[in-house]
Amino acid sequence: MGLPDASGDLSSEVEVDAFRRLFPLRFYERHLSESIRPDGRPLGRARDTTIALGAVASADGSALAKIGSTTMLAAIKMEVMTPSMESPDEGCLAIDFHMPPICSPIVRPGRPAEAAPVVSKQLSDTISSSGMVDLKELSLVSGKAAWMAYLDIYCLDADGALFDAALLSAVSALSHLQFPVVSLNEDGRVVVVSEEDGGKPEKEPVNREKRKLTLKSIPFSLTCILHKNYILADPTAEEESIMETLVTVVLDSSSQLISLYKPGGPVLANTSVIQVSFSPLKHTL
Amino acid sequence: MEIDRVDGRTANQLRPLACSRNILNRAHGSASWSQGDTKVLAAVYGPKVGTKKNENPEKACIEVIWKPKTGQIGKPEKEYEMIVKRTLQSICVLTINPNTTTSVIVQVVNDDGSLLPCAINAACAALVDAGIPLKHLAVAICCCLADSGCVLLDPTKLEEQKTKAFAYLVFPNLTLSILPEGSLKVEGEPVEQAIITSVTQGAMSVDDYLHCLERGRAASAKMSAFLRRSLPPQNPSDSSRAG
């Protein structure tokens, strides 16, 4: 089993599916040496990506992003809160990433997935370091009221490149976000005006003109697998489980580096590899 | 190019390093690593029989448990656990003890910036102390990018909060053992030029990042030398510890 030429002989005799299950790494290496991947993509090509805005009607902003079959649903719920004493003119953005058992056989009900808090932390780091959302825009009345935005991302189908899809859906949901209309009530408190009230609110709304968030620079990410001398863009879950070294590069629309994330892995990245992994991303920007 | 740091260091100056190992009696291996006021204690138990669920039983499994100084573990600690685990996996020879689990417990004693690099260095020293087979050592360092574009090495907590971006980098240590010709090079670059782990926060230009890499790499050579000095070959009579 350990001999390389033994499996080479086997590959011509065993069925392809059996070979794929028994020697997954060799199966992939045979493909890589031909510069193609088992799903028919060249090494550097990402899967087809679609975004649908407004997928959740009850949310203030939402988006459904798909990269290949990896599916992420992001939704934002806005609430009025009293800002903290340290930052009276700033709102708050809370990001949470969920991996329910529906998304992958690895996730069991009742036990949270190991990857979920990591992706969640990565997302909030990336969104805060890119400076995409100006928290001052979430302020309503300085020191009195500000928006608390709950951004929740649900992974519906985990087929690799989770962070890329999660970031894409989060950014799309933020771009789709529309602030609810609020007004001051008799007690001087800021309340949300429900639209079914019949057209004529008694009080003047506080935020009539400003209903959209201005996104400054938009971050894009690409995850690549490093294996020997090959670089595979946008891996599937199967590829991620077989070849373990992942590198995630996040650039924003002004070509600033937001994050270069390589958590260990058996393959070491040298400078040239890093520079190469930038290029496909720059190409897409 | 000169920049004033709060503690009077130059931009390239590290805080005083200290490493002691074999400090816990029951652990199979233990080490403490401190960089200035940041101090981390690491203990290694194992290899123990069996792997955890969802791990490959054909390989040795490494489990990292992060204990913060106070309070419960949250998302940042979970992320640190994952990064330390992946980093250690890449330096261990996992095929030697298949179907075993090695637990690495990282206890934060004090956090004054560069916490994750400090923890990786401590864990690496503890693995050596426990006699876990390693391919090479790993040296971790934090590079901070100041507003002026200067790279500050080994920042304190205050500096980390003030600067616009920072990067945690882990480099492999120079391999001293004999290896087959050519295996020391990855695409023409010597292996110690490569990076094992990179975590960045804050926006920076690509050139700034490469600049950080260069500085970090230069400083990691000094830290490797220190790590090696503080890990003298263990004498065989030292095997009195039991689990």
Any descriptors?
heterodimer, A: 285 residues, alpha+beta, Ribosomal Protein S5, domain 2, six-stranded mixed β-sheet, four-stranded antiparallel β-sheet, 7 helices, 28% strand, elongated, disordered N terminus, B: 243 residues, five-stranded mixed β-sheet, 4 helices, 11 strands, 26% helix, 29% strand, globular, disordered C terminus, PNPase/RNase_PH_dom_sf (chain B)
Question: Could you characterize the architecture of this molecule?
Answer:
Chain A is of the alpha+beta class. Chain A has a single domain (38-177, 212-284), classed as GHMP Kinase, N-terminal domain (Ribosomal Protein S5, domain 2). Chain A contains 7 helices and 12 strands. In chain A, strands 1, 2, 3, 4, 5 and 6 form a 6-stranded mixed β-sheet that branches. In chain A, strands 10-9-11-12 form a 4-stranded antiparallel β-sheet, with helices on both faces. Chain A has a two-stranded antiparallel sheet with strand order 7-8. In chain A, a hairpin with a 3-residue loop joins strand 5 (139-141) and strand 6. In chain A, helix 2 (16-22) packs across helix 3 (24-33) and helix 4 crosses helix 5 (162-176). The model of chain A is unreliable at 1-7 (pLDDT under 50). Chain B is of the alpha+beta class and 243 residues long. Chain B has a single domain (17-176, 187-229), classed as 2-Layer Sandwich (Ribosomal Protein S5, domain 2). Helices cover 26% and strands 29% of the residues of chain B. Chain B has helices at residues 75-91, 115-130, 157-162, 206-229; strands at residues 17-21, 29-35, 38-49, 61-67, 100-110, 138-145, 151-153, 165-172, 185-186, 189-190, 197-201. Chain B is globular. At the A-B interface, helix 4, strand 12 and helix 7 of A face helix 1, strand 8, strand 11 and helix 4 of B.
